[in-house]
Specification:
Layout (H helix, E strand, L loop, with lengths): L2 H13 L5 E5 L5 E5 L3 H4 L1
Antiparallel strand pairs: 1-2
Length: about 45
C-alpha cells in the first residue's frame, strides 16, 4: 500500500469517528480511540 492510500484510509477513519472522540497514537505507533471531554463536562 502506498502513502496516498494509507493517508486516504486514515482520513476516512478519522471522518467516521464519533463526536468527542480522538485518536491517540502511542510511542509504539499503536492507534487507540479515546473519549474527549465536552466543554460542559469541564465545568
Amino acid at each position: 500500500m502506498d502513502d496516498k492510500q494509507e493517508q486516504e484510509r486514515l482520513m476516512k477513519y478519522i471522518r467516521e469517528l464519533e463526536k468527542h472522540t480522538s485518536l491517540y497514537i502511542d510511542g509504539k505507533k499503536s492507534i487507540r480511540n479515546i473519549k474527549d471531554k465536552a466543554f460542559w463536562e469541564l465545568v
